[in-house]
Automatic annotation (TrEMBL):
Task of the protein: Catalyzes the decarboxylation of four acetate groups of uroporphyrinogen-III to yield coproporphyrinogen-III.
Enzyme Commission no: 4.1.1.37
Name under which the protein is recorded: Uroporphyrinogen decarboxylase
One GO term (biological process): protoporphyrinogen IX biosynthetic process
Subunit description: Homodimer.
Pathway, per record: Porphyrin-containing compound metabolism; protoporphyrin-IX biosynthesis; coproporphyrinogen-III from 5-aminolevulinate: step 4/4
PROSITE patterns for this protein: UROD_1 (PS00906), UROD_2 (PS00907)
Length: 422
């Protein structure tokens, strides 16, 4: 047992891999702590743990509202956060980006990750604080270097399209992702029990599109052709990504993430029967692997353009299915059934509408989603040039909601069973 004292904050456990092969469980720090980056560490409690220790077991009664909703628990109102809630629409972010123009620097430096992640938390107090990162962030840690250009976006100089290309892959080296673990730990200390800290990953198919195509694409022709011309290579790649992403999720949870969103952003580019073959089994395997280590951590699956995949998404085993804005929430609820919770799905364009119109749409979506197992979100990320006052209004409206008022004539909460097994 090694003791370290940290100024302030509530107690929680988080785990970060060390070179020694042990894990470090940390008591919550406040914003002044930047592991090795600032000198004002006092001492309070760090303890070394075996790598075999599972993810921290959540306390069901004291979990943040978002985590409770993800489990289908009865709560007083829907929690809310926004995809891309930290970013270019915020003036404070644009000012910081001028000083640090490289996205890789902003998303791979602990102080900057923490600052950017907390910008919308300070401004709007959402119920979820998602780490500022990218689905491609872990690629170099398992053998796939990439760069990001301002115009072209991510660039992978050596795409993997054959057996020779597979030779560059190796098991994920989590030591190269310590900046993610440290940032999540600090975020937990910052928000305490007032909000949930979210981590996220890309699904194997979506990550593979970048690795095979060499970057972004509008057609996905190379990887779609590969399904037929080199299926054995694609299977090996997807299997490797599945293991790496599973390890990365567990690492994020042990570092402090209380909920994980899996982005299969480009899964909607596949016909449903093709998604069933080339994406779903790998997501299902990730969910199974994470469940063994982190059984209390809710998993959310979001696919852009998922209207044709909704019923199939439930078979992955996730706790929450995110709906995009093209799906009617009431229809989505019917199609999902009672065994999975739902997230979404206000059209991001409503944030450009008059505020009373936005209010009405929030009320409509919440009523269509029902009074349990719903996380309010947009149906896609916050758009560039979105007015900050509209984002503030969105969260103000949600905080003022009450299920008892919205569903006065509906069945009592205590007559309902939780939607999920957690």
């Amino acid at each position: 047992m090694i003791s370290v004292t940290i100024r302030g904050g509530e107690m929680y456990s988080s785990s970060i891999p060390l070179r020694s092969g042990l894990l470090i469980a940390w008591s919550s720090p406040d914003s002044s702590v930047r592991l090795g980056l600032r000198p004002n560490l006092k001492t309070q409690s760090i303890r070394l743990l075996s790598k075999r220790q599972r993810c921290p077991r959540a306390s069901l009664s004291s979990d943040p509202l978002l985590v409770q909703a993800a489990r289908g628990n009865a709560i007083s109102r829907p929690p809310a956060w926004m995809m891309r809630q930290a970013g270019r629409y915020m003036a404070v972010y644009r000012k910081l980006a001028e000083k640090y123009p490289s996205f890789r620097v902003r998303s791979e430096t602990v102080d900057l990750i923490v600052e950017i992640s907390l910008q919308p938390w300070r401004a709007f107090r959402p119920d979820g604080v998602i780490i500022f990162s990218d689905i491609l962030t872990p690629l170099p840690a398992f053998g796939v270097p990439f760069e990001i250009e301002d115009v072209k976006g991510p660039i992978i100089q050596s795409p993997i399209c054959d057996e020779e290309g597979l030779k560059c892959l190796h098991p994920i080296d989590l030591e190269k992702l310590q900046f993610v673990g440290e940032s999540l730990m600090i975020l937990r200390g910052e928000v305490g029990k007032k909000a949930a800290v979210l981590g996220f990953v890309g699904a194997p198919w979506t990550i593979a599109t970048y690795i095979v195509e060499g970057g972004t694409t509008r057609t996905y022709t190379t990887i779609k052709r590969m399904c037929h011309t080199a299926p054995h290579v694609l299977r090996v790649l997807l299997s490797h990504l599945t293991q790496a992403i599973s390890d990365y999720i567990i690492f994020q949870v042990k570092s402090g993430a209380q909920c994980i969103q899996i982005f299969d952003s480009w899964g909607g580019q596949l016909p449903p029967h093709v998604w069933e073959h080339w994406s779903k089994p790998y997501i299902k395997q990730i969910v199974s692997s994470v469940r063994k280590e982190c059984p209390q951590t809710p998993l959310v699956l979001y696919i852009n353009g998922n209207g044709g995949l909704i019923e199939r998404m439930t078979g992955t085993g996730v706790d929450v299915v995110g709906l995009d804005w093209t799906v009617d929430m009431a229809d989505g609820r019917r199609r999902l059934g009672n065994n999975v919770n739902v997230q979404g799905n206000v059209d991001p364009a409503y944030l450009f509408s008059p505020l009373p119109v936005l209010t009405d749409e929030i009320h409509r979506v919440v009523r269509c989603a029902g009074r349990r197992g719903h996380i309010l979100n947009l149906g896609h990320g916050v758009l560039v040039n979105t007015p900050e006052e509209a984002v503030a209004h969105f969260f103000d409206v949600v905080r003022g909601l009450s299920y008892d008022s919205l569903f006065e004539d509906d069945v009592a909460v205590d007559e309902l069973e939780p939607l999920t097994r957690l």
